[in-house]
Amino acid sequence: MNIFKIALIILLSFHFGIAQSSGLTMVEDFQPAISNQPGSDFPQVNSEGRVRVQISAPDANYVQLDIGGVKYDLVKDENGIWTGESEPQDVGFHYYQLNIDGASVPDPGSRFFFGACRYGSGIEVPSDDMDIFANKNVPHGHLHEIYFPSQSTGVSRRAFVYTPPCYQKETSKSYPVLYLQHGYCENETSWPKQGRANFIMDNLIAKGKAKPFIVVMTYGMINDVEFGRIMDFDIEPFQTVLIDELIPYVDSNFRTVGKQSHRAMAGLSMGAFETRLITLNRPDVFSYYALFSGGIYTPEDLKDHENLKLVFLSCGSKERPERIATSVKALKEAGYNAVSYVSEGTAHEFHTWRRSLHQLAPFLFNDLD
């Protein structure tokens, strides 16, 4: 055995021994993630929620896995293959990247998602409730990619529109609409891809747990605001796009019930901030408000919202659930129909928001004929 191989064995022993000596022995049941590129064996996830990545970079001096705000060193073998693992991650979807000699790059084994202000890698850490967004053998709706004219911005803007399975068949029927917003450093692809909003809706409708309705997802124009200065964001340009341009376009090109009583708005994180601002500025447009991990309403906020049917507030259990509970309690005492939901074991992440949509949808439009 040559000196190089001996050194490699020592290095690998040290790498895995750290976990063992700290009581964090890894369970070696890693499996390819469901979020991988077809045919890719890496990245992988084990039953503890650890993420294992592997990449060929024979000329690199160091490679790291960057996930959850923490960087983990990878170890190179004699063939120039780097491998390493993270600590256990929360269940659900996580953005991540590889750092090769200081350059942050996507992992070629992962599908690409737009998040963290870039197209890059994402990984699904399995949970017990993945069936809520699974691609099941049920009737599926259609996800339409549309471009609508925006005079205020001078361009055609993109949106994704989900129509329920019955939309194509029941051609004489019109539907209510949910306008659903993404978060900071995400875009209109985020809810359909990592949020899997269309599959969540398909599965709920198939079980009879939610009424069929249309879901519209567009870019919130929020990523130009500097991180840390979110409160400086000017809602007026997007409010104009949404209310004066997108909603009329959707009402003209899809079979909607174009009334306040049949319209809802929801958003996650920064999209919840947008939702709160727009619903407070224009109480005449929506009748159902939902904030996922992004603020609260007070009874004073809603005193002039005569046609308000529902306030839904949610967050992860690792966020600030007590704030949600306090707000909903005050709203209920003031006579509002308010609902809270806390996603157990998750933080400010997409599984919190998938679960939130899954909980919200059955409350929407269920009072309508």
From TrEMBL:
- Secretion signal, residue range per the UniProt entry: 1-21
Q: Which Pfam families match?
A: Esterase
Q: Which GO terms describe its molecular function?
A: acyltransferase activity, transferring groups other than amino-acyl groups
Protein keywords: Signal
Q: Which InterPro entries match?
A: AB_hydrolase_fold, Esterase-like, Ig-like_fold, Ig_E-set, Mycobacterial_A85_antigen
Q: Which SUPFAM superfamilies match?
A: alpha/beta-Hydrolases (SSF53474), E set domains (SSF81296)
What CDD domains would the database entry show?
A: E_set_Esterase_N
Protein's recorded name: Enterochelin esterase-like enzyme
Source organism per entry reads Natronoflexus pectinivorans
